[in-house]
Design brief:
With 188 residues, the protein is mainly α. It has eight helices and two strands, in the order αββααααααα. The protein is elongated. This is Tetratricopeptide repeat protein.
Length: 188
């Protein structure tokens, strides 16, 4: 004769005991009770996050920016805040969805939110640096500093420093730094 599951779960053999020897209210799961497999749960979660990401991209492609923002918000603020490619895609969408100075502001806001959550994400730092580079020479110092920082975090990103526009920005920033250092030493 089989023992009912409830009785098995609350039997003295499966109860936690307090220091006084009294049974606590929370039963220990019986050994035969199967728990969900963590690796499968992780796989399901990744698959769900990928579906959310794909749908956000699809909404953005169809210029349904408000809906895409909602999906990116759900994905990145509720489900997986460490999904770097989604932060970058969201920032690129904002740059495309807006005009004038607002396009850069919205793009920057998204990347800053991502960096607030993931301060050591080389991917997000690189994206922020490339955004600064695209904004023009007035933003090149920030761009160069960010791109050099992303490479110091992840050396595999070093090829970005060899891109033509990045090399030009580094030369310009380097010559400005040398001029400023010379001016400071002359004033001393």
């Amino acid at each position: 004769m089989r023992t009912p599951l409830l009785k098995t779960l609350t039997s003295p053999a499966t109860m936690l005991l307090s220091t006084s020897g009294r049974a606590l209210a929370m039963p220990i799961l019986a050994k035969h009770k199967a728990l969900p497999r963590v690796d499968r749960w992780g796989t399901e979660r990744r698959e769900n996050n990928q579906r959310l990401y794909d749908s956000a991209l699809e909404y953005a492609r169809r210029n349904r920016f408000k809906t895409a923002r909602s999906v990116f918000n759900k994905l990145l603020l509720e489900e997986d805040p460490h999904m770097c490619c989604a932060w970058v895609s969201w920032a690129q969408m904002e740059k495309r969805a807006n005009t004038g100075p607002e396009r850069w502001d919205r793009c920057r806001e998204v990347l800053q939110r991502g960096l607030t959550i993931n301060p050591k994400s080389a991917c997000l730092i690189q994206a922020f640096g490339l955004m600064c580079l695209q904004r023009g020479p007035g933003h090149w110092l920030a761009a160069v500093m960010l791109l050099e920082r992303c490479v110091s975090i992840d050396p595999r990103l070093e090829p970005v420093l060899n891109w033509a526009q990045v090399s030009e920005a580094r030369k310009t920033v380097g010559s400005r730094r040398r001029r400023n250092a010379g001016a400071l030493s002359n004033n001393s």
